[in-house]
User: Fold this.
Amino acid sequence: MPPKNILIACYYFPPLGLAGTARPLAMANHLAEQGHRVTVLTVRDIDYPVYDRRLANQISGKVTVVRAESRDPARLRKRLPLIPSRKLLGRALSRKVKELHFPDSKVGFVRPAFKELEKLLPADGDNILITPSPPVSIHQLGLKARERYQFKWVADWRDIWEALPHFEQSRNFSRKAVEYTQRVLRAADLVTATSAKTLEYFEDNLKIAANYFFLPNGYNETDFEGQLQREAGRIGLYGTLNHLVGIDRLFSWIDQFRKRYPEIKFSIRHTGHNDLRDFESLLARYNLTDIFSSDGYIPHYRGAIAIMRANSVNLIALSTLCDTSFIVPSKLFELLRAEPPLIALLPENNAARDLLNRYNFEGLTLVNNIERFHQALKDCLSAGDSSKHRQRRGLEVFDRRNQMRRLNDKLIAL
Assistant:
């Protein structure tokens, strides 16, 4: 098959760090490996908590990167630092400001990016546009380009609406969000999502019969090369800490575990960004200050993975206080690929829990109550060197190289 011209228009891309950049980076690199001509259209430097230059070094030399201007708040704060951040505005005012920028605060990227997109979509040739979200405003590029150009469009969804479903916003916002989402689903030639539950919602609730393809996040096998020394009695907490994690419940359960089993000595090591306010007060409330440490964000390649692999046990959690049913944490697959046991605190109706129940991986414990959590943690911390630290079978389906081969097959068939 002759190579295609593939344009990936995404807001989050290296050197920006954190979880949202890994997916478009994997798409760009692996599709370029398949022989396609790949161009990434992304934003210039923005006000952002983490820049990862090592991640930027992983962009394939076969991938062309074009960076466009933007009028969104994050880009403006980078140019004009006196503009207040969302945290300074307060949650209530931030929500009002958010609703003024439909579909989201990054909509100011659409017009400048579209000017660049017009240069990058040749009039002839086999062109494919991929728009990975968040932000969901990125799909406006596909809708606008549909009016002028002939191409195949892949609308890729990580979450239904930013970090939470749109129906947790105001009634007016939710109505507009549904209409916008339906327009995107009808216009796209292929709709991909990281969560099977998201695709079910699109088809069953929004009543759109589109060309759907479940494309979960994954891991890179090359990140897991070599053997590592284990750290006895260390609990690993990996990834960004925010309101979706349900950290109060997790810390409360660990505090009660410590009181219940004072003879079991352990520490908690967090690796990742922290977006929670008054975190030190939270640690003090649950008597965890003396055993908790955080590395902050560590470059993903090898460094953060090595820490994950050395822990006695790793934890992953999602809150029950807000709707996390559609969310599959992007770090889940690296935690599964790592050798230590994994304890997952996931709500009953969560998409990640559904996925894990389907595969039934070894060394994984799904918990939904404190008793089961305490027993699982006790088993892991008491086992010492006899606990199972081995690669899990059946994970190959989540190896990014295999996933992108499947995506490539779908693109060729468009």
